[in-house]
Design goal:
- With about 220 residues, this protein is an alpha+beta fold.
- The chain has one domain: Electron Transport, Fmn-binding Protein, Chain A (Pnp Oxidase, Chain A, Roll), CATH 2.30.110.10.
- The chain has 7 helices and 8 strands.
- β4 and β5 form a beta hairpin.
- α6 packs antiparallel against α7.
């Protein structure tokens, strides 16, 4: 990932915390038929050091797992908040006209080795943990045990799990850090005026980084 110094986020603890959040990720592998990608939720375990491992599953009918050799290098992509930034929000645009559109976003790339597995005794704890994480905040959370055991056993036959040992993490928070404080204030105000959830999320990150306040 292209990582200009203004946008690089190298706090390993913060990156691991982001990986622990429920979200969809993209698993990219290079197999016998070339590059393939699947979009799946993943769990993050702290061990082994230094960056832990990712766990998830794909459909058994998805050929990606068959085409990927055990221990192959792989990439997992996690996208966070993102929003369009209009040049009309910049003080620089009003002063000089020298401004162009851009896009603010947060992203994490995890690199490592992937291995697939299909043993039911490994798949059941995996889908149980994924479910518990996603259902945790619901008033009446659904549990895997709520479904008949034979039904769950059948569902497990339809998936293949993967274990992804992370060897390198890259974080990129492109949040107008390369702009003047006045431009950053304008971006946050513009995002607030847009009023959408994506824009609000980006504005919150910018404020959390101290942008526009002189504290960044």
């Amino acid at each position: 990932m292209y990582l200009p110094k203004d946008f690089k986020r190298d706090d390993a603890a913060a990156l691991r915390a982001e990986l622990a959040r429920p979200r969809l990720a993209t698993l990219v592998t290079l197999g016998s038929e070339g590059l393939e990608a699947s979009h799946v939720p993943m769990l993050h375990d702290e061990g082994p050091a230094p960056f832990g491992r990712l766990l998830g599953h794909v459909a058994r009918g998805n050929p990606q797992w068959r085409r990927t050799a055990a221990g192959s290098q792989a990439l997992a992509i996690f996208l966070g908040a993102d929003a369009y930034v209009s040049p009309g929000w910049y003080e620089t645009k009003r002063q000089t006209g020298k401004a162009v559109p851009t896009w603010n976003y947060a992203a994490i790339h995890a690199y490592g080795e992937v291995r697939f597995f299909d043993e039911p005794e490994r798949l059941l704890p995996l889908v149980t943990r994924l479910t518990e994480r996603s259902e945790a905040e619901r008033p009446e959370p659904w549990a895997v045990a709520d479904a008949p055991a034979d039904y769950i056993a059948g569902m497990l036959k339809a998936i293949v799990g993967f274990e992804f040992t992370v060897t390198r993490l890259e974080g990129k928070w492109k949040m107008s850090q390369n702009r003047t404080a006045e431009d950053q204030v304008g971006v946050i105000a513009g995002l607030d005026r847009e009023g959408g959830p994506a824009e609000a999320a980006v504005a919150e990150i910018m404020r959390g980084l101290g942008l526009g306040s002189g504290k960044a």
